[in-house]
Amino acid sequence: MAVYTQVPAETLAAFLQRFDVGELVSAKGIAEGVENSNYLVETTGGRFILTLYEKRVAANDLPFFMALLDHLADQGQPVPPAIPDRKGREIHELCDRPACLIKFLPGVSVSHPTPAQARSAGAAMGGMHDALTDFGRDRHNSMGVESWKPLFQKCGDDLDRIRPGLHAEAAAMVEEVLSGWPAADALPRAAIHADLFPDNVLMLGDTVTGLIDFYFACTDFRAYDLAVMHTAWAFDASGETLHANIGNALLDGYRSRFALSEAEREALPLLARGACLRFFLSRAWDWLNTPADALVTRKDPIAYLNRYHRYAAANPFA
Ligand SMILES: Nc1ncnc2c1ncn2[C@@H]1O[C@H](COP(=O)(O)OP(=O)(O)O)[C@@H](O)[C@H]1O
Ligand SMILES: N[C@@H](CCOP(=O)(O)O)C(=O)O
Q: What region holds the Aminoglycoside phosphotransferase domain (predicted)?
């Protein structure tokens, strides 16, 4: 469930008056998602997504996210830009939260992607990277490599409450990843999505209709984006079984739209382990700090630990 902030109908109707989108017809909270409050809003002018940004999205990052979406949309990429109000403003305040009215995109996110769907999704990332080569803005990756050791230390011995021995296991992972991580100038850097999981790709059949949820977007190694995507798409839910055909289809699709250098290909196994560590740590922190009866569903950190060990045991990018 991700509707943390309730927006009264009267408040929403008044808010919509700022835009050229017609009158409010209906508004329903969207259960999916974990970070923000999202509503599907129908007006006499069409359908829209209303997002209220909750504590994890910093208001001063919104101009970067909105500029990124506008840049991609201008280049014909399947992303949902914010709808400007009559004065051209995209970022607003509603119920004491930063808020945007966003273009609605059709499609559903797949839970068990087929190779054809993985190929299309990989191609969509390649197209997005191509369109971002001339995007001039930077955003530090707040969930990037420098944040992993501090987050591990913040979780501390409590990790053993998730599973006995987990603190020592995670310490070894942090050491392994950080000791081998490429220098900042070793690989091409660019604006990346950084969270392109299946639930952030909308599809109709084998066609990608939307790339959404850019709220971790940042500047980092471009190949790290592909590594994140591989960890999220090419495994079963437990993270124990690697679906090599899905991973290969993803890479094939990507390379059909954007070239991967030899150095980037060689770095992928380590970048993937870094991605596993990043999502293991953020999930572990949330697991330890979200009450079991909270409205939001906690995501399993062990599923990312399992993926980490799978990448450590064999190189699926060979
Ligand atoms: N532009 C959009 N068009 C259609 N549906 C959307 C759009 N943006 C979000 N959604 C729906 O809302 C859900 C949650 O959005 P998301 O951005 O992933 O939330 P969160 O940031 O809280 O994780 C998505 O799974 C999707 O169903
Ligand atoms: N993809 C991350 C969590 C972020 O959730 P999202 O709904 O904003 O994509 C994970 O799976 O740990």
A: 27-256
Q: Is the four-CA dihedral 25, 31, 33, 37 of positive or negative sign? A: positive
pLDDT digits (tens, 9 = 90+) for 143-183: 999 999 999 999 999 999 999 999 999 999 999 999 999 99
Atom of ligand 1 nearest to the CA of 108: 27
- In CATH, which superfamily holds the domain spanning 9-103? Phosphorylase Kinase; domain 1 (3.30.200.20)
CB distance 298 to ligand 2 below 6 Å? no
Q: Ligand 1: which residues within 6 Å by Cβ? A: 2, 30, 32-36, 38, 49, 80, 102-105, 109, 199-200, 210, 212-213, 215
Instruction: Locate CATH 3.90.1200.10 in the chain.
Output: 115-313
Decide which of 3.30.420.40, 3.40.1380.10, 3.90.1200.10, 3.40.50.80 is the CATH code for 115-313: 3.90.1200.10
CA distances in angstroms from 249 to 68, 119, 189, 270, listed in the order given:
27, 5, 24, 20
Which residue has 């124990």 as its token pair?
240
Answer whether residue 1 shows pLDDT above 60. Answer: no
Q: Is the CB of 299 under 6 A from ligand 2?
A: yes
pTM (2 d.p.): 0.96
